[in-house]
Structure formats: structure tokens, C-alpha cells
Design brief:
Oligomer: heterodimer
Largest sheet of chain B: none
Distance between the termini of chain A: 33 Å
Number of strands of chain B: 0
Radius of gyration of chain A: 20 Å
CATH architecture of chain A: Orthogonal Bundle
Number of helices of chain A: 14
CATH topology of chain A: Arp2/3 complex 21 kDa subunit ARPC3
Order of helices and strands of chain B: HHHHHHHHH
Chain lengths: 322, 204
């Protein structure tokens, strides 16, 4: 999902960079205030870990393989602020050292993967943990949040490409969302397996980092959430809802005519739309919600199978601090 | 495995470009990238000019051509994807070859800079540009331990492979997940030792 240079244009790059800079600035300030100095090297090591972990290939059917991306996993282990810093570091090194992802597209990549992916995914993780306390709930939360963050980040990426006029929105959305709905399942499964394995060997690691700032103030989520929603409103909403808003006028002024983006061929995945709905955005939303429900059921089942009964009961007392 | 990625990172060929200040190289590279992205597609002269300039730099840098071509091939899935999507639903104003030329110029620029400039000098430029010190410290530590942890992952993978039989898919995922979790645990234990070492040397 690393966008290279040349695929998004100036206005998209600048907008995304502004959002990313705001998010990373907030995260840095929060980490400096809350993280004990002992833990500063852990940020660098966690970034190196993510990079190394991405090289471990998990076999998928048919000779293909996938790997961990790890945004939600790192956020669950270290907290949202630290996760944004870690993922930003990984993206900067991948960009400058390995030329993976563009320099001008760095802001867009940070927004998609660090702010939407990690911080947004973390908010969802906490929400599910709140509803379903205990280790099984935690596993369910990791799987579900990883899947959602993968899908939402890919949709935002499609929106950025479409806003830049590189590809048409219906095709980009259908291709990115459908592929990442599958990738997200693998991501959720790997994240959950790794999280359980870490919990089993060093249960102190995950809880300690999160305990340092245990009663998380709501306003911290509100800030990241606001940034994420603002970004989605700019990159995705104009295409998804067809709002006749000020953004249209601004875009037209910038030489970007939405009329040119009307689909010439109908969407390549028409079955993604729910029949009987005449409002296309609405039917897409219903289809997306149905997909999310199915994945949530899958996540619940995984929580039950991956965490044995014994562990679920003994650990409940200690980890129901949520 | 990582050597495929970094290529000549460890044996960077010595060339006149190694002596050019990092800030200048970075500045020129970013200028080229920004102009290449912003310039309208009809300005063919810029694309031709930039390509000739980059070709000259490639000659001076003495980087193996095969290595550069291999890295440029990384772009092919993206370009193919855009070409495919544009074939399904053409977009006015953007053609896939235009995107391909732009991104190839930008990618080549970054590859040239990253293979003629040590990462530590890039970090120094970032520090000079007032990037928050916490971010620079994290970047420096990540770069330092990147290769250590990738080697460790490779060692653990090899040790596993030599001791366990190839099992069913599900079990293999669990095994691999254990390797990844061990990597995190070892990384965080290493971070604690690094903190002690940093304090012993006067870091604050």
C-alpha cells in the first residue's frame, strides 16, 4: 500500500502531508510527556522489529505468501502515540533507504498507515476490548481492528489516487477494498497469533506499556479521531456520497473536473452492490457493514479457538482492567 | 535476504558523488521530485531534461546498472495496476505512461541519493532541519538495529527449519507467529540493555 511518487498530485500530497504532520506532532508531544525515558530506545527497536517481522513470510494457499504489517499490533502493545511514531519511522526509513514509497507521497502513506491504520485501529481495539473484557475479547478486538484498519487505509489510498486523477474512483475503490478485505483477514490472524504468543511469554510487556497511561483521557482519541475523520472527509467522502459541497467547487477551480470521472464502464465488481438499493453509496455502506459483521463473527470464533478455556478463566481477573 | 533490498548499502562504490554534501544532494533530489510531480504532463522537455541529468548522475555514481534496473522494476506492479484500472475506466488527463515516467524519475532520484549518501548524514540533515529530536533518535536507533534484528530473524528461521518437520498450514502459522513474537521480546530486552548502555555513556 506504499504509494510511490508520481501517483498522487500536488494538492493531494500537500493535504495528506498537513494531516500527517499534525498527527505525528501530536503523537510526538504525547510520547515525550508520557513515555518514561527508559522506554525511548524501545521505539527504535520496535520500528526495527516491525521491519524485520515484515520479512517473515506466512504461506498462503497456492504458493503465495503474506506478511504482517503490524500497525494495530504495535498500537496494542505500545499505545497509540508510540505506534504513530514507530510506524512513521518505519515509513521514513523505507522511503529514504529502500526507496519503498515516495518522498512526496510520504505524508499520504503516513496518514493511511500510521494515523488511520494504527491510531484508528487502536481506537476500535479499545472499543471492542471494552465490550468484551478478558483475553478472548482482546484477541477478537485485535483481529477485528486489524481487518478494519487494513480496509479503511486501503479505501483512503484509493480516494487519494482518485482525487489525484490517476485512476477512476469506482475502479480504484472496488479493486483496493476487495483485495484488502482478504489481506485484512490474514493481517488480523497473524496479529492475533503474535499477540497471544507475546502475552504467553511476557504478559508484563503489553500491560506495562499501556498501564503507564492507564485511564486514557478521551480527548487524546478525539484528536486522532478528528484528524482521521477530516482526512476521510477530504479523500473519500466526495466520491462515496456525491455531496454537492464546497470541495467540488474548490476542486473544479484547481482544474479538477469530477464530471470527467463518471464511470464509462460499470464497476468491475457489481456484485459488491446490494440489489434493491438505488442509492449506490448506501448499498456500498450496507455491503461493507455486512462484511464487517461477518469478520466480527470470525474474530469472535478465533478468540474462542485460539485462547483455551482455562486461560480465559484464569486471566480474566487480572486483565479485566478495561 | 536483506542484501537484496539494500543492494550496495554496505559496499557503496566510492565516487565523486560521495564527497558532495548530503544537504545539497537531498535538496536537489527533493527539488527534482517536487517539480516532476507538479509539472503538467504536456511539458515533455522537463521529463527529457531530468532523465538526461539522472543518466549523467548514474554514470558518475558508478552504481551497477543491473542493480538500478532491479530496483526500478519494483514499480512495475503499481504501473501495471494503474494501466489495468485505466483500461477499465479511462480517466481524463491521466495516462498510465505519464504516471510511469513521473514515478520512474522520482524513484531513480531516491535510489541515487540513498546509495551515494550514508543514512547517518541524512539524519544529520534532518536534525539540522529541526526535525523533533525524539523522531531523529528513533530513526537512528531503528537504522542501527534494523540489520541486527533482520539477521536475528533469519537465524531463528533457520534454526526452526533445521529442527522441525514441515507441518500443516495452521501449525506452521503458529510456529512463525512464535518466531515473530520472540523477535519482539528479544528486541524489547535489547532496548533495555541499550538504555543502560546509553545512560552509562552520558545520554539524557
Amino acid at each position: 500500500m506504499h504509494i510511490p511518487d508520481g501517483f498522487i498530485d500536488g494538492k493531494t500530497a500537500v493535504t495528506a502531508a498537513a494531516l500527517a504532520a499534525a498527527g505525528v506532532g501530536l503523537a510526538l508531544r504525547q510520547v515525550r510527556k508520557k513515555l518514561p525515558p527508559r522506554r525511548v530506545p524501545l521505539l527504535g527497536l520496535a520500528a526495527a522489529f516491525l521491519f524485520a517481522a515484515q520479512m517473515v513470510n506466512f504461506p498462503v494457499a497456492g504458493g503465495t505468501s503474506g506478511h504482517l504489517v503490524g500497525g494495530v499490533l504495535i498500537a496494542a502493545l505500545l499505545g497509540p502515540g508510540a505506534a504513530i511514531v514507530v510506524l512513521t519511522t518505519v515509513l521514513i526509513v523505507q522511503c529514504f533507504l529502500f526507496a519503498d514509497g515516495g518522498v512526496l507521497a510520504l505524508g499520504a502513506n503516513i496518514f493511511n498507515m500510521a494515523i488511520l491504520g494504527a491510531a484508528g485501529g487502536y481506537a476500535l481495539y479499545r472499543l471492542v476490548c471494552h465490550w468484551l473484557p478478558g483475553p478472548r475479547g482482546q484477541v477478537t478486538a485485535i483481529v477485528f481492528a486489524s481487518w478494519c484498519s487494513t480496509v479503511v487505509a486501503s479505501i483512503s489510498c484509493a480516494g487519494q489516487l482518485a482525487w489525484s486523477g490517476t485512476v477512476a474512483w469506482p475502479a480504484a475503490f472496488a479493486a483496493m477494498a476487495s483485495v484488502h478485505m482478504l489481506i485484512g483477514i490474514g493481517e488480523g490472524l497473524i496479529s492475533a497469533l503474535v499477540f497471544i504468543a507475546i502475552q504467553r511469554v511476557r504478559p508484563d510487556l503489553a500491560s506495562e506499556m499501556n498501564a503507564a497511561s492507564q485511564p486514557r483521557p478521551l480527548k487524546e482519541f478525539v484528536r486522532y479521531g478528528l484528524l482521521a475523520v477530516l482526512g476521510l472527509a477530504v479523500f473519500v467522502a466526495p466520491f462515496a456520497c456525491g455531496w454537492p459541497d464546497g470541495l467540488d467547487a474548490a476542486a473544479a477551480k484547481l482544474g479538477f473536473d469530477r464530471k470527467a470521472l463518471q464511470p464509462v464502464v460499470s464497476a468491475p465488481a457489481p456484485d459488491y452492490r446490494v440489489p434493491g438499493f438505488h442509492w449506490p453509496a448506501g448499498s456500498t455502506a450496507v455491503a461493507g457493514a455486512a462484511g464487517a459483521l461477518v469478520v466480527f463473527g470470525l474474530a469472535l470464533a478465533l478468540g474462542r479457538t485460539l485462547v483455551p478455556e482455562k486461560e480465559a478463566n484464569t486471566a480474566r481477573g487480572s486483565s479485566s482492567h478495561d | 535476504m536483506i542484501d537484496d533490498w539494500v543492494g550496495h548499502h554496505h559496499s557503496r562504490p566510492h565516487s565523486p558523488l560521495s564527497h558532495v554534501p548530503a544537504a545539497l544532494k537531498l535538496g536537489v533530489a527533493i527539488a527534482i521530485i517536487v517539480i516532476t510531480v507538479l509539472v503538467p504532463g504536456t511539458r515533455v522537455s522537463w521529463f527529457v531534461g531530468a532523465s538526461i541529468f539522472l543518466a549523467l548522475v548514474v554514470l558518475i555514481s558508478r552504481l551497477p546498472l543491473l542493480f538500478l534496473l532491479k530496483r526500478l522494476a519494483l514499480l512495475s506492479p503499481f504501473v501495471l495496476g494503474v494501466a489495468l484500472l485505466n483500461a477499465l475506466q479511462p480517466v481524463a488527463g491521466a495516462s498510465w505512461w505519464n504516471v510511469a515516467v513521473r514515478s520512474a524519475i522520482c524513484l531513480l532520484t531516491v535510489i541515487l541519493v540513498s546509495n551515494t549518501t550514508p543514512f547517518s548524514s541524512i539524519l544529520r540533515v534532518l536534525k539540522f532541519a529541526h526535525v523533533p529530536s525524539l523522531l531523529v533518535t528513533t530513526l537512528a536507533l531503528m537504522h542501527r538495529y534494523l540489520f541486527v534484528l533482520t539477521d536475528e530473524a533469519e537465524r531463528m528461521r533457520r534454526a526452526r527449519a533445521s529442527r522441525t518437520f514441515t507441518r500443516q498450514h495452521g501449525a506452521r502459522w503458529r510456529t512463525l507467529a512464535t518466531v515473530v513474537s520472540q523477535l519482539f521480546i528479544r528486541g524489547s530486552e535489547r532496548a533495555e540493555r541499550i538504555y543502560d548502555a546509553m545512560c552509562a555513556r552520558g545520554w539524557k
